[in-house]
Amino acid sequence: MEALGDFRPSTAHTRELGDEVREVRERSGLSLTKLAEGLGWSPGKLSKLEHGRRGGDVVDLIRLVGYCQGDQASLDRILSIAREGETGYIIRPHLDGVPDALRALISSERRATTMFDYESMRVPGLLQTEDYARALMLAGSDPRFAVEPGVQTRMERQEVLHRSQPAHSTFFIHEAALHSWVGDWQVMADQMLHLALTSAAGHLHIRLVPFRGGSQVWTAFPFRLMEFKDSEPLVHSANLTFSVLSERPEVVKRHRAVTEAINAMALSEEESRSEFARWADHYERLRGDDDNAGGPVA
């Protein structure tokens, strides 16, 4: 039987480990109860492990993967995560430049109750149209990596915004992203229209950060701040080749302060919606005149 003292809030680290374990179990076809019975565990112990509410002993994890007849790659990933320990930081590579498939990020997005997302030069991934995402990935892709799987993963990630109890999400998009040409005029027009229409959803708040707010030290650094019902807040930031996730109090405090500054500077939702619609019209008027791409809005 699980001791009451064994309960603990989940962390990005334990959520990532739990998702890996659950995937191994589900691929084996075993129910949670059957696997726990086979390992001599209580169902509660396995459930907490899968839900990120406890860590995993290396020997226990090896037994679990072996009982499920998991492959070596799965075992290597699970043991690598388990051996890292809790440092307050998780660093994960994504050499294809696309962080969408990172389990540590996805598992946290699914559990978040509140999300604040700031993007400086492009539309946030969770708000991108399929064509915009494809054009963006094609423009910066390494020829060794396939683009379409990345596009599909990004579209699947967006389901987190439409689940039965979605996180209360606020997206701040710097005006520079509206000027940054991705694909052709049609891609940009459709993306701007998508932002205008999506911003009407009750649980989504999409706000434009205008140039007139001035240049601040943080404006060039996109990030996401996620909050949870019973776990510590988490900050995610990414560059071309790796992502960093942190729950350290000083990191969260700094990004909260930046979020407050952005909130004070951003246009209202209604003003932002009008701007997105205006930019959609601007790009529509460039039909057949791609030479004018990036020109000023009339």
Automatic annotation (TrEMBL):
Region (Disordered): 1-20
PROSITE patterns per record: HTH_CROC1
UniProt cross-references to CDD domains, sorted A to Z: HTH_XRE (cd00093)
Family annotation (InterPro entries): Cro/C1-type_HTH, DUF5753, Lambda_DNA-bd_dom_sf
Gene Ontology MF terms: DNA binding
Gene3D superfamilies: lambda repressor-like DNA-binding domains (1.10.260.40)
Domain HTH cro/C1-type: 21-75
Name this polypeptide is given: Transcriptional regulator with XRE-family HTH domain
